């Protein structure tokens, strides 16, 4: 201790303690990102950009986009649909808060009040569409055209290529289900020895690049004016029911965050005490079971694992939604009581090959119809009672 104190020119007594405090954190060190993110969020809060305004997968989505923002380590992006000048005013308040906190701004990176910009490597087009940047897409295409005929590359090179591809896949998470064999080949990301690449790995990468044409997000798509619920049972089969709901309540429901444990309960929940046993915040839907009507109830003769059956029931419901072209290019909210399938659908992929196959089919249905689904966690087996008990099973109800 005394040697350290002498080295930094500080006099300490026998009972005193020194707590080293770093003024510089190395880039790439995990604590660096954490400290930068927490500091920036604190500055944003002082500027009037609190947690109710942030766009993140760890908190509920803001119900109003008159003023919203996202934070990525040391970058802040402010969004608004309230017209010109709103983001500029919020940015001015943020700059003042940064000055008070001693945060030095990199002014050369400022982009003010525009409808077209690049945010965290993603291109915002006309103020409502998110696309991978055209230049990066062109580079990915050239790289895959170079790899496909020769099939030789290093695991490190494939890992780097896959990292870029996956970043853009987050725009349409179900696209992640395309990748499987490539993870095994790119496991050793520090191995730069050029070797032969298996055909299955090349096929996955070619498919991933080709599907980039679907990797866009339209923030202006309307919600459908109903909420659906699906369930599956080894005894009763697959089923789904829907209830009409006002658009403002559908949008509010879509903002709930299942990742942090938010789950939906009904006004006449069969066992309301179960909510107390769940982590996360229960969200009252203010709908009763009687408000839901059954749209499909299908007997299943060959059964698989219950989570696979839950995924198949979800797929049947998507097909029912897409029977009408009027529902294309929309957002649909669906309640699921299987946390396994909910997490897989929200994440876009699973470690299970069988679940990934279902997610690939989900991607095909939603991309071609321009449908955006928002899976939410429902409480208990209430919908199973509504679908399979309240209404007799019929094999001809829907096909």
Structure description:
The chain is an alpha/beta fold. Helix 2 packs across helix 3, helix 4 (134-150) runs antiparallel to helix 7 and helix 9 (306-321) runs parallel beside helix 11. It is globular. The longest helix is centred in the N-terminal third of the chain and has 17 residues, at 30-46. Helix content is 37%, strand content 18%. The termini are far apart.
- Strand % is 15-25%
Ends apart, CA distance between termini: 77 Å
Tell me, what is the CATH class of the largest domain? Alpha Beta
Radius of gyration: 25 Å
- Binned, the helix content reads 25-40%
Number of helices: 12
Low-pLDDT stretches are 385-399
Shape: globular
CATH architecture level-2 label of the largest domain: 2-Layer Sandwich
Order of helices and strands: HHEEHEEEHEHHEHEEEHEEEHEHHEH
Number of strands: 15
Read across the widest sheet, the strand sequence of neighbours is 12-11-15-14-9-10-13
Summed up, the domain count is 3
The biggest sheet, with number of strands, parallel, antiparallel or mixed sense and barrel status, is: 7 strands, mixed
Class by helix and strand content?
Answer: alpha/beta
Oligomerization status of the protein chains: single chain
Tag the structure with descriptive keywords.
399 residues; alpha/beta; Nucleotidyltransferase, domain 5; seven-stranded mixed beta sheet; four-stranded antiparallel beta sheet; globular; disordered C terminus
Q: What does the secondary structure layout of this molecule look like, with pairings?
A:
Layout: H1 2-8, H2 30-46, E1 68-72, E2 75-79, H3 86-101, E3 117-119, E4 122-125, E5 129-131, H4 134-150, E6 152-153, H5 155-169, H6 181-185, E7 195-196, H7 199-210, E8 217-218, E9 223-233, E10 237-244, H8 247-254, E11 263-265, E12 282-284, E13 293-298, H9 306-321, E14 331-336, H10 339-347, H11 353-369, E15 372-378, H12 382-389
Parallel strand pairs: 9-14, 11-12, 11-15, 14-15
Antiparallel strand pairs: 1-2, 3-4, 4-5, 5-8, 6-7, 9-10, 10-13
Helix pairs in contact: 2-3, 4-7, 9-11
């Amino acid at each position: 201790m005394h040697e350290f104190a002498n080295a930094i020119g500080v006099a300490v007594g026998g009972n005193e303690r020194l707590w080293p405090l770093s003024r510089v954190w190395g880039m790439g060190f995990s604590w660096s990102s954490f400290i930068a993110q927490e500091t920036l969020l604190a500055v944003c809060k002082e500027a009037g950009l609190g947690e109710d305004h942030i766009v993140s997968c760890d908190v509920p989505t803001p119900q109003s986009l008159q003023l919203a923002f996202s934070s990525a380590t040391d970058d802040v992006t402010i969004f608004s649909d309230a017209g010109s000048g709103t983001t500029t005013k919020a940015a001015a308040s943020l700059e003042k808060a940064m000055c008070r906190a001693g945060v030095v701004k990199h002014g050369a990176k400022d982009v003010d009040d525009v409808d077209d910009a690049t945010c965290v490597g993603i291109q915002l087009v006309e103020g409502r569409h998110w696309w991978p940047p055209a230049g990066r897409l062109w580079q990915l295409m050239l790289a895959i055209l170079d790899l496909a005929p020769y099939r030789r590359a290093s695991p490190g090179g494939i890992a780097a290529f896959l990292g870029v591809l996956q970043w853009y896949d987050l725009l349409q998470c179900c696209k992640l289900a395309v990748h499987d064999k490539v993870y095994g080949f790119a496991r050793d990301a520090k191995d730069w020895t050029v070797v032969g690449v298996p055909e299955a790995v090349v096929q996955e990468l070619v498919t991933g690049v080709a599907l980039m044409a679907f990797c866009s997000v339209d923030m202006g798509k309307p919600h459908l004016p109903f909420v659906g619920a699906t369930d599956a049972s080894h005894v009763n089969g697959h089923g789904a029911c829907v209830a009409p709901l006002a658009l403002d309540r559908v949008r509010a429901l879509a903002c709930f965050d299942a990742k942090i444990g938010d789950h939906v309960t009904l006004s006449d929940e069969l066992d309301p005490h179960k909510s107390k046993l769940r982590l996360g915040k229960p969200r009252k839907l203010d709908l009763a079971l009687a408000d839901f009507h059954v749209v499909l109830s299908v007997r299943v003769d060959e059964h698989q694992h219950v989570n696979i059956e839950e995924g198949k029931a979800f797929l049947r419901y998507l097909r029912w939604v897409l029977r009408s072209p009027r529902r294309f290019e929309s957002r649909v909210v669906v309640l699921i009581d299987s946390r396994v399938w909910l997490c897989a659908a929200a994440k876009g992929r699973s470690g299970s090959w069988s679940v990934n196959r279902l997610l690939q089919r989900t991607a095909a249905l939603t991309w071609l119809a321009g449908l955006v689904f928002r899976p939410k966690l429902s409480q208990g087996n209430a919908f199973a009672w509504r679908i399979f008990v309240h209404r007799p099973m019929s094999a001809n109800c829907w096909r």
